[in-house]
């Protein structure tokens, strides 16, 4: 198995930043728990082996990523997850982008939590607070006014992209993402993120930016 392929970049990230604990590693399987997000992350090229391994941890599986799509669908049905996200993984392998933008950027702090939480509901307020505390969210400003924000989920993927309605269709989403890609590369990591398989707008944005898309889908699931 190629553990460094694009579908497995989430596992690679938590191991490189030191928050990932390897539960099992063989020629066919890499199973990791991330101490920051609490997520379990599994790369396994054999469905039966993967299920046998996951069965041993079924009581602890609250948040799980499986990079083998077929295994991920089986796990979702087997372990009582309430929600799943079937998505492509994207990664940026180019040179660090030059962000030539009308925007200025600032790392968010806790004084920004109310503003961000009022507009972004894809994750809980508590999780947003953790993201901000980790200095993993930036806000873009145009002529002194906030236009949107972007950040890094607790397991390391780029996301949380939001542009306020009055500032949309002006390229600010692209500028925000390029800024965060550059920030990630400055830390020595490969920038990566996920896009839901039917989100054509976001899929198009990643292509425009120059992100590479995985050939196969991965599955995130949670309870």
Structural class: alpha+beta
Strand fraction band? Answer: 25-35%
The share of residues in helices is: 25-40%
Total strands: the figure is: 11
Spans where pLDDT lies below 50 across 5 or more residues:
none
Listing every helix as H and every strand as E from the N terminus to the C terminus, the arrangement reads HEEEHEHEEHHEEEHEHE
**What's the end-to-end separation, in Å?**
29 Å
> How many independent structural domains?
2
Number of helices: 7
The backbone outline, from C-alpha atoms, is: globular
Largest sheet: 7 strands, mixed
> What is the residue-averaged pLDDT?
96
Radius of gyration: 18 Å
Please give the order of strands in the largest beta sheet: 1-2-3-4-11-5-10
Describe the overall structure.
With 223 residues, the protein is α+β, with helices and mostly antiparallel strands. The protein has two domains: 6-91, no CATH class; 104-189, Gcn5-related N-acetyltransferase (GNAT) (Aminopeptidase, 3-Layer(aba) Sandwich), CATH 3.40.630.30. It is 30% helix and 31% strand. The strands form two sheets. The protein has a seven-stranded mixed sheet, sandwiched between helices. A four-stranded antiparallel sheet has the order 6-7-8-9, covered by helices on one side. A hairpin with a 5-residue loop joins β2 (29-34) and β3. α2 packs parallel to α3. The longest helix has 15 residues, at 172-186. The protein is globular. It starts with 8 loop residues before the first helix and ends with a strand.
């Amino acid at each position: 198995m190629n553990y460094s392929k694009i579908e497995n970049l989430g596992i690679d990230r938590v191991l490189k930043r030191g928050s990932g604990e390897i539960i099992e590693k063989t020629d066919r399987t890499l199973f990791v728990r991330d101490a920051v997000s609490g997520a379990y992350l599994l790369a396994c090229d054999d469905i039966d082996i993967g299920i046998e391994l996951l069965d041993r941890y079924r009581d602890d599986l609250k948040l799980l990523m499986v990079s083998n799509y077929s295994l991920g669908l089986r796990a979702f049905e087997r372990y009582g997850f309430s929600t799943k996200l079937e998505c492509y993984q994207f990664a940026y392998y180019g040179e660090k982008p030059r962000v030539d933008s009308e925007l200025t950027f600032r790392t968010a702090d806790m004084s920004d939590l109310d503003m961000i939480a009022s507009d972004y509901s894809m994750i809980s307020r508590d999780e947003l607070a953790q993201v901000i505390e980790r200095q993993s969210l930036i806000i873009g400003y145009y002529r002194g006014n906030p236009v949107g924000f972007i950040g890094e989920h607790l397991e390391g993927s780029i996301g949380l992209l939001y542009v306020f309605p009055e500032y949309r269709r002006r390229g600010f989403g692209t500028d925000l993402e390029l800024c965060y890609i550059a920030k990630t590369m400055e830390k020595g990591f490969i920038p990566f993120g996920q896009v839901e398989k039917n989100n054509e707008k976001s899929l198009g944005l990643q292509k425009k930016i120059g992100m590479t898309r995985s050939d196969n889908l991965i599955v995130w699931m949670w309870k």
